[in-house]
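Need the bound structure for adenosine-5'-diphosphate, inputs here:
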Amino acid sequence: MRHVDVGLVAKQQDLYDGFDDQYQCPILDEDKVIDELEEVMSEGGNVVDYHGCDFFPERWFHVVVVLRTDNTLLYDRLSKRGYSGQKLTDNVQCEIFQTILEEARDSYSHSMVHELPSNTPENFEQNVDIICTLISEWTSAHVK
Ligand SMILES: Nc1ncnc2c1ncn2[C@@H]1O[C@H](COP(=O)(O)OP(=O)(O)O)[C@@H](O)[C@H]1O
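Answer from helper R.:
Posting the output first, comments after.
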């Protein structure tokens, strides 16, 4: 199984289209990302890691996992990462409005989308177990 960190791939391959002055970060070129990942995704067996999902083709996935975090914990995590001001507030607000969960539900069939809490190291361990179980269930049902 491969871990595809979309942010890292974009950085390594320079898959950007301009710079966002407000958030002080490069803007992802979604079409270039799709082209870059198409071959590896069509082989299967990938875990794709990103903070958005609506631009990925549905055919790439059999399971979509949305990790959720309580707002106070998220605030502290993002501050530690160096986020502040509007960027910090917008990220926390996005979690309050469960924007990514809704994006996933709007983009993929509801039965594919799993929402998991990720507040504590125990949650982290549980989530790894749950995701491994989801993968092996799907594999035994579909790969002969
Ligand atoms: N389940 C968790 N329990 C405790 N701390 C966590 C958990 N998940 C993430 N963190 C903390 O938050 C930081 C950011 O996590 P990361 O997985 O990089 O978040 P994202 O990719 O969503 O921005 C990690 O370095 C870690 O310190």
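Comments: The two ends are 17 Å apart (CA to CA). The mean pLDDT is 95.
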